[in-house]
Amino acid sequence: MQVTLVDKLPAGNDYNQVRAFIAVAEYLSFSRAAEVLGVSPSSLSQMIRSFEERVGMRLFHRTTRNVSLTEVGENLFRRVRPAAFELGEALAQTRTAGERPAGTVRVHTFRSAAQKHIEPILASFAERYPDIVLDVTINDETVDIVAGGYDVGLRIGEVIQRDMVAVRLGPELRQLAVATPEYFRRHGCPEHPRDLVNHRCIRWRWPGHQAPYAWEFFEEGAWFSVAVNGPLIVSEKETAVAAVLNDMGIGFAVEEMILDHLASGRLVSCLEAWSAPFPGWFICYPQQRQMAPALRAFIDAVRAGPAHRI
């Protein structure tokens, strides 16, 4: 007998047990998960026991103080969470299909992400959704999206909060150490990232941090940092690149930001053997039962990119 997709879908009590499992795995707390699901902790505990009996494996480690996933539970959660989220999103979009998106969407974005993923869609987005107001904060601070009152953020992958839904917007990025040919002619080229301590480097301070950013490199399967020194510390990466172009020292910049300068020969890269890629741009937002149509419209437009005729 042929097994169909319908046969694979959970039904009745099976579906409730899957929801219970996802909730406990998400919050790692029976009391919090029970509150979210609107059931008593004892009922939730019984559902989890029944679900474990059904799958024939223990899914959680339980103590009087802590709840954690077993290896089997972790693998199951990793597979069912995105599927459950997509199902919820599909149902929510179907329910709101007839609504005209309206309201304010509050966005926090890093500067480079705004230039690459938001600015190109602004005019067409406003034309299609005249009832949506985009309130966009542009800076490189790693603020808490929810605590800051934002609906959505654009981030590089390594600084995304753990409890956020994150959707990749593009390929991996990498940072390169660069200087002008004249600087390297006068001062030589470092042979290893640690040689940078003997060079004049243009430093950048991450907003909200006291110390300048330590340059990150990759060697033998691990990242390491070099605390460089130099004549200038700035809070704007564009200013740092301008200083490098004026022969002030070696800079450290995302490759796509300096491609034209590299292609023209105004800048030359070094230490590329230690410049490994890292997670690129993501759009991230809190997981929610039903997403507002205005927020969904903005997320879809950003994901589609400037070539999409929205």
What does this structure look like?
By secondary structure, this protein is α/β, with parallel strands linked by helices. The chain folds into three domains: 5-95, Arc Repressor Mutant, subunit A (Orthogonal Bundle), CATH 1.10.10.10; 103-172 and 279-304, D-Maltodextrin-Binding Protein, domain 2 (3-Layer(aba) Sandwich), CATH 3.40.190; 175-274, D-Maltodextrin-Binding Protein, domain 2. It is built from eleven helices and 14 strands. The protein has helices spanning 5-8, 13-27, 30-37, 41-55, 71-95, 111-118, 122-128, 181-187, 237-245, 259-264, 293-304; strands at 60-62, 67-69, 103-109, 132-138, 152-156, 164-168, 175-179, 202-204, 215-219, 222-226, 232-234, 251-254, 268-270, 281-286. The strands form five sheets. Strands 4-3-5-14-6 form a five-stranded mixed β-sheet. Strands 12-7-13 form a three-stranded antiparallel β-sheet. Strand 9 and strand 10 (222-226) form a beta hairpin. Helix 2 (13-27) packs across helix 3. It is globular, with a radius of gyration of 25 Å. The two termini are 45 Å apart. Mean pLDDT is 87; it is low at 1-9.
